[in-house]
Amino acid sequence: MSDAAVIDRASLDALDKKARAAIGASADEKALDEVRVAFLGKKGEVSLLMRGLGGMSPEQRQEIGPVLNGLRDNLAAAVEAKKSALEDAALDARLAQERVDVTLPVRSEPKGAIHPVSQVMDELVAIFADMGFVQAEGPDIESDWNNFTALNFPEGHPAREIHDTFFLEAEKDGHPMVLRTHTSPVQVRTMVSQKPPIRIIAPGRTYRCDWDATHTPMFHQVEGLVIDKTTHMGHLKGCLKEFVAAFFEIDGVEARFRPHFFPFTEPSAEMDVRYERVGDEVRIGQGDKWMEILGSGMVHPNVLRNCGIDPDEYQGFAFGMGVDRLAMLKYGMHDLRPFFEPDTRWLAHYGFTPTLLPSLAVGLS
């Protein structure tokens, strides 16, 4: 071996020790990468020596070349081994820092629930759909004609006063727009746009100037309408008795119909059902007391005329009831106001599971 070769081997050994010491002293991946660049980068010490092979004699290249290649490969392997060790150490530190204390109580995830009003509306739709009724909708802001005039409300009727109705800006004809006081305008819109036979229910929001334990300025109603050539009062009574039995999930209903007055029906009647109160529970279908539950009647001929239907050829019945009060009766609620207050505890207590859809086949509630 020549003297030059001995010198080169000694310098390579020294370089190897120097590089390995720097690799071992690297405290993190950034410092390790700086060491890699210093020795194995394009301008690193080992790379510069590799370039010097071209200036050696063939004998020197044959002797020093394999040693230099081995040095490069060994240092690269040492860098990778150190990098893996640093990554493992960093992961262990992170796991130790982010460990979960399994002795802590589990935090419950937020859960949603169906509001009782929505639940009752779905129940009503399910019951009347089984009877062949189709759901219809209309806007909350209505014309004076649809809300009052077409429904046979005369000028000066108390319902047209500001103490009972929310009035908005006037239309072009001078008549004011209103927040609908009932869902009956949906009946008007349906009769104007469709030819009989008609069988619809119209659930939705309604508005009146009132606020106490049993009245709210915004509440919910559902109304039904049947128009054909043969429908009579007996059909109305049978329909409503079947509805009450299905809604309260009882075998039979004892009901009575008392004469009443509504501008849009003639004859008109309120429906009472027998009930008893046991503590805070109201039991429908038993007892010796009577509770008014809804209003109904045969559609007034004037209403039919206003909607373009000949009362000499067609007749029908209509009914309406408060959704919020039905929820109060069925599910034991004593005050309407919490229905509209942002109290999640109330909804957690009275709310319904979203996955259980009302069905007459498996039960409504």
Task: Characterize the structure shown.
This protein is an alpha+beta fold. It has two domains: 3-97; 116-350, Bira Bifunctional Protein, Domain 2 (BirA Bifunctional Protein, domain 2, 2-Layer Sandwich), CATH 3.30.930. The protein is 41% helix and 22% strand. The protein has eleven helices and eleven strands. The strands form two sheets. Strands 1, 5, 6, 7, 8, 9, 10 and 11 form an eight-stranded mixed β-sheet that branches. Strand 3 (167-170) and strand 4 (176-179) form a beta hairpin. Helix 1 (3-25) packs antiparallel against helix 2 (29-40), helix 1 runs parallel beside helix 4 and helix 2 runs antiparallel to helix 4 (58-97). The N and C termini lie far apart (98 Å). Mean pLDDT is 86; it is low at 1-7.
Name its key features.
365 residues; alpha+beta; BirA Bifunctional Protein, domain 2; 2 domains; three-stranded antiparallel β-sheet; 11 helices; 11 strands; 22% strand; elongated; disordered N terminus
The name of the CATH architecture of the largest domain is 2-Layer Sandwich
Summing up helix and strand content along with how strands pair, one would put the structural category as alpha+beta
CATH superfamily of the largest domain: Bira Bifunctional Protein, Domain 2
For the CA atoms, what is the radius of gyration?
42 Å
